């Protein structure tokens, strides 16, 4: 047990400024998302940019590519939240449709198999299939968040549990702690979004 705590201490001492920035802006971005604050998107751009460099150094190439993709999709999410509703108004919280859900699940399975095979056979990537699976599920969650689907928080909860284990294994202790915080924020986000959606439903019915 002492060796474990010493390893954590050594890891924290070795943390780069880039990882600290990524963690701080990451927490801020998810907290803002839970509160449906549109500033979540520009703040998140800073965080995911930092993690492109962090994951490259850790040889988690799928996660590196994921965060590079996040940079682009964050601008899409930003636009959707502001103008994705009816009549180009602010998008409201809704539930994911059954057809949309099954299409996303199929894409996750195909993406995991394809990317996992490529990374395992043609790169020096570590945890190829685990990395690919978490990347695919995270893309699903990110899409659902951009569309303000309530279930995005449940998907984040599932994938963040795995991320905590992966980043602890890779000795990215501060990042593992970040994803533990994400678990708490995802729970808050789900409850807040559900409450807001129920209020919107009541308001429409009583009009």
From TrEMBL:
GO terms for molecular function: nicotinamide riboside transmembrane transporter activity. It holds the Pfam family NMN_transporter. It is found in: Cell membrane. One of its GO terms (cellular component) is plasma membrane. Signal peptide: none annotated. Its main location: membrane. NCBIfam families: NMN_trans_PnuC (TIGR01528). Belongs to the nicotinamide ribonucleoside (NR) uptake permease (TC 4.B.1) family. This is Nicotinamide riboside transporter PnuC. It comes from Pontibacter lucknowensis.
